[in-house]
Every structure is written in structure tokens, then in C-alpha cells.
Write a structure and sequence with these properties.
It is built from 16 helices and 23 strands. By secondary structure, it is of the alpha/beta class. Strands 6-5-4-3-2-1-22-23 form an 8-stranded mixed beta sheet. Strands 7-8-9-10-11-20-21 form a 7-stranded mixed beta sheet, with helices on one face. Strands 14-13-15-12-16-19 form a 6-stranded parallel beta sheet, sandwiched between helices. β20, α14 and β21 form a beta-alpha-beta unit. It is globular and about 80 Å long. The two termini are 43 Å apart. 43% of the residues are buried.
Length: 538
């Protein structure tokens, strides 16, 4: 068995690992890089059509976002994932494609005016829709699924996101079976709605994330008290509470908290205060959360359901779908909660709500998630006095608040508990999905505890055999340098040409699949290829 790390090695995004086992090639995750890159992700060493399957840990775009790209370029294998992951991917991949199409449309309008060649999105909504047809849904309770002869996979709840899983592979080659566990993103304990991570006990090898491998989360705050305080004080001033929130996961947690606040009457003098969820993606995601409770919810949430209560609904909840619905929210003077995306305020409907509320001293902007450097959300948290929205300077007079401690990732202690559950210890631990220094820090910590561990670089290749991990290729250790301006005579390869090359490689795969076919059929196939070549050979 061989592993090649293609993404999220010494970085947090772009998770993708190529496995070659029992004569087959398949991927664990196929994620999109997001934010600033430190190391180049390694391209697939083969055509997408040569990838025979994808096993997906969860739906976040940094783990799933390149699947439609692979489909567009020839991949047609099965995609194994949990039911909830499949349901979330259906809306998240479509949303990702839609954003790309909008960005390309804007870029091409500018290109047309300046005489530049048009560009195309990495993939379209049609590609995303077609890729969804390849999903093979699994349940945690299903046990191992046969992926290929000699390869079984089992999905175990890891408590990070609805449907998130660790994946256990059992690979049999030459009469010997080896087990390797891919952690996926390990969840934080005591999150609302979701169960705590389920621990595994047996593995020869482990690939584990390290997002918070260098630190623990602060003591868990009293979220209900903090949120109640923000609501009470803001409503007493006659203002709105505007919450930039990630559409999948964080919005549903907020609805869970607000339901409890309302049920217990914690906010006084503002009975029935309205709560608007103004994000089509968040609203569709909430529906997925409601439909996938039995396999994923914790006991507290299940108890509410058994009592006939919806954990994500309450009196005063208003769902905003259309642009007209969104505009009407700020026309109403009633103090209210507005939950909208994007979570870092860089796009989406939240920017309109900020324009209407930032300048009002009676309002509060409440951040409930990480704000990356360079985003509008980070600027507001760092004390910006004025921001620019839709070509207009807007004064920041509203209160800026933040709820800390809300994290879907296990901290250092949580990672320690997860890896310590294996008995006996794995022969080798690969550390990925962590910033450069953090991944190395966590790998060094594991070594100090007696594990054999390393944090590979993108492109690194390991052969796993006999309880040992042999490094065949070290990967790319150089960090990305700012590229020099390309020479004028350099011809860039377009995405369309790249796709054409991948289709050519797929054709070779299809030809090989027809080996041993009837001579009549093979001759017809060859004639069709010849006709195609005659048409396009210029």
C-alpha cells in the first residue's frame, strides 16, 4: 500500500490523499484550497479518469470542493460518504459552483472591456449536479463496505460536522491485511446538537489532523449567558443583533441556543423577538440538519425530539429566501436578530445588513467564528472606525462583540485523547491538516510520547508494509515564493486545454477497458476515434 499526500500537508485546507492499494487507486477527500497557500498542493499524478473511487470524510469545501472538478475532467468512480455528508455536499458544492460562475461572469465583463481572453470557472453547477450522481451513501451503523476486492472501508462518527467521519481502511494484499485510519477533522467535545467523537482502538497506521495541535481551547464559556446578555442589552437600546455566521454548522448551533433562550424566557421585556435567518444556503443546511438527526444528534437534542420539540425551531423564527425578503428585514424597526452569511463578511447578504446597522450605535455586531486576516470581519474585530461597503464609507458606531470558544475542532487535549484510544499503538502516525509549525509541533509531541510520527510535505510518498512506513519521496519542502512576471512569449495553459488533455487520458483508460472485446466493436471504436482525429487535427 502506498500513500501520497496531495494537499493539507503542513496546511489546513485542500485535504487530499492518494491511496494505491490492492491494485487500485483512490482518494481520501478531494478538497479545495482556501485562503493563503504556504506550500503548493501536488497535482494528481494521474488523469482524473484513472482515480477509481473517492472516500469522503465530511462535506466542508476544504475536503470536498474539488470533486466536481474531477468529474468535469473525467472521473466517474463511486464516492463513498455518509448520508448526511452527501446531503450537505449537494447544496455546498452547488453553492461553490454558483460563486465561481458569478466571479467568472464579473471577470469576463472586465476582460471584454479590456480585450483580454475570457476565463471559465473551475467547474459549473451542472458539473456539481452530475458529480452528486456518483455518491454512494453510508450510515455509521452499516459496518464495513467493500470498495474493491481487498479493500474495505468503515465510517465512524467523529463529531466535527453533521455526517463527519473517520474512515478505517482494511487492505488485504498478498494474503496480509493492514489497517489504516484517516481521522478526518476530529470534533470538539460537548458541542450543541452533535455527538462527541467516537474513539477507535485498532490501526496499524493513522493519518490524523492537527489543527489545534499546539494549544487547548480556553475554558468553555457559558454560551447561553453570553448570548442572552448581548440580546438583552441590544434590544433594550432598541437595536438589532447582526450575526455574521457560517451557513453550515454554526448557524444551526445558534438556532439551538436561541431556542433554549426563548423557551426559558431569559430575555425580558422583548417577548417574541424575531430571528431572521437570511442565507439560502443556511436555510437549506438547516433542513438537512433536521432530516439527519437520528444518526448524528447527541442525547440532549434527541430528548427534545422525543418530547415533540424541534431543536432548531421556535416562535419568531423567520426564514428569508428572496432578495425582497432580505431587503424587508431592515425596513422593520422592531429589534431583532439577523443571522446571515458569509461568516467573515467578505461576501453575501451579510454585507447589506452591515451597511444598514454598523452606523447605528444601538446595534450590535456579534461574531461567532474565526475571522481570517485580511477579511472585513477581522478588520471590525480589530477596531476599524470606518469600512467601505458597496462604494460607500460606513461609520462603525455599533458595538462589536465576539463569542469565543465555539470551535468544531478538537484541541490539543482532544487530539491526545483520540490518539490514545488506539491499543496497541499504531506503528506510524502521519500528521496533516495543520499549519506548518503546528503540524511539526504535534508530530514532535507524539514522538516525545513514544509514537513513531512525522508531518509529511505535499507530494510525499510512503510505502506501508510489514508494520513500517518507508518514505519513497520527501515531497516539496520549499514554500511558495511570489512568482516573477511571466515572459511575454510564454503561453499559459487554459483550463479548457487542461480538460481536453484529461479527456485524452480518459480515452486511453476507456480503450484499456475494452481490451478483449469483439473485433467488430473494437474496429468501430477505432474508426470513431480516427474520424474525431481527422476532424480536429489542425
Amino acid at each position: 500500500m502506498k500513500l501520497q499526500f496531495l494537499g493539507a500537508a503542513r496546511e489546513v485546507t485542500g485535504s487530499c490523499t492518494l491511496v494505491e492499494a490492492a491494485g487500485h487507486r483512490f482518494l481520501i477527500d478531494c478538497g479545495m484550497e482556501q485562503g493563503k497557500d504556504l506550500y503548493e498542493n501536488t497535482p494528481l499524478p494521474c488523469a482524473p479518469a484513472e482515480i477509481e473511487a473517492i472516500l469522503l470524510t465530511h462535506a466542508h469545501i476544504d475536503h470536498s470542493g474539488r470533486i466536481p472538478y474531477l468529474y468535469k475532467n473525467g472521473f466517474r468512480g463511486p464516492i463513498y460518504a455518509t448520508d448526511a455528508t452527501m446531503d450537505l455536499c449537494e447544496i455546498m458544492l452547488e453553492d461553490s459552483a454558483h460563486i465561481q460562475e458569478q466571479e467568472v461572469e464579473w471577470k469576463n465583463r472586465k476582460a471584454q472591456r479590456s480585450g483580454r481572453a475570457p476565463v471559465e470557472p473551475e467547474y459549473t453547477t451542472r458539473d456539481a449536479e452530475e458529480a452528486m450522481r456518483l455518491f454512494v451513501p453510508q450510515q455509521y451503523s452499516d459496518g464495513p463496505v467493500r470498495v474493491f476486492d481487498g479493500v474495505e472501508a468503515e465510517f465512524t462518527d467523529v463529531g466535527h460536522l453533521l455526517g463527519s467521519a473517520s474512515i478505517t481502511l482494511r487492505v488485504t494484499e498478498n494474503g496480509r491485511t493492514q489497517t489504516i485510519v484517516f481521522s478526518g477533522d476530529i470534533g470538539n467535545k460537548n458541542q450543541p446538537l452533535l455527538r462527541d467523537p467516537h474513539y477507535l482502538t485498532n490501526a496499524d497506521f493513522v493519518v490524523m489532523e492537527s489543527t489545534y495541535g499546539d494549544r487547548d481551547h480556553p475554558p468553555r464559556p457559558d454560551y447561553l449567558r453570553e448570548l442572552t446578555d448581548v440580546l438583552q442589552s441590544t434590544f433594550d437600546r432598541g437595536g438589532n443583533v447582526v450575526i455574521p455566521s457560517f451557513a453550515v454548522g454554526r448557524t444551526q448551533e445558534l438556532l439551538y441556543f436561541i431556542r433554549q433562550i426563548k423557551a426559558e424566557g431569559r430575555v425580558h421585556g422583548h417577548d417574541g423577538f424575531p430571528v431572521y435567518v437570511d442565507s439560502p444556503l443556511a436555510n437549506r443546511s438547516t433542513t438537512v440538519f433536521r432530516e439527519n438527526y437520528s444518526q448524528c444528534y447527541d442525547e440532549d437534542a434527541l430528548a427534545l425530539i422525543r418530547a415533540g420539540q424541534n431543536p432548531l425551531s421556535f416562535p419568531g423564527l423567520c426564514i428569508s429566501q428572496t432578495k425582497e425578503d432580505s431587503i424587508a428585514i431592515n425596513a422593520d424597526a422592531t429589534p431583532k436578530v439577523i443571522i446571515s452569511a458569509s461568516g467573515m463578511c467578505d461576501a453575501g447578504r451579510i454585507r447589506h445588513h452591515l451597511k444598514h446597522n454598523l452606523w447605528r450605535k444601538e446595534c450590535t455586531i456579534l461574531f461567532v467564528g474565526y475571522q481570517a486576516a485580511g477579511t472585513l470581519g477581522r478588520a471590525l474585530l480589530e477596531g476599524a472606525d470606518e469600512v467601505r461597503l458597496f462604494g460607500e464609507d460606513v461609520q462603525v458606531n455599533a458595538q462589536i462583540r465576539q463569542m469565543t470558544g465555539l470551535s468544531g475542532h478538537a484541541d490539543r487535549t482532544g487530539l491526545e485523547q483520540w490518539i490514545a484510544s488506539f491499543s496497541p499503538r499504531p506503528a506510524f502516525v502521519f500528521v496533516n491538516h495543520g499549519d506548518d509549525d503546528v503540524a511539526e509541533t504535534w508530530a514532535a509531541h507524539l514522538r516525545s510520547e513514544g509514537y513513531t510520527a512525522a508531518a509529511p510535505y505535499n507530494g510525499a510518498v510512503y510505502e506501508l508494509t510489514g508494520g513500517h512506513a518507508l518514505c519513497l519521496e520527501p515531497g516539496i519542502r520549499e514554500r511558495i515564493q511570489k512568482p516573477a512576471a511571466p515572459a511575454k512569449d510564454v503561453v499559459r495553459t487554459s483550463p479548457a486545454f487542461e480538460r481536453l488533455v484529461n479527456m485524452g487520458k480518459r480515452l486511453l483508460v476507456v480503450i484499456e477497458h475494452n481490451r478483449g472485446g469483439a473485433n467488430k466493436d473494437l474496429a468501430k471504436f477505432a474508426s470513431q476515434i480516427q474520424a474525431l482525429c481527422d476532424k480536429w487535427d489542425r
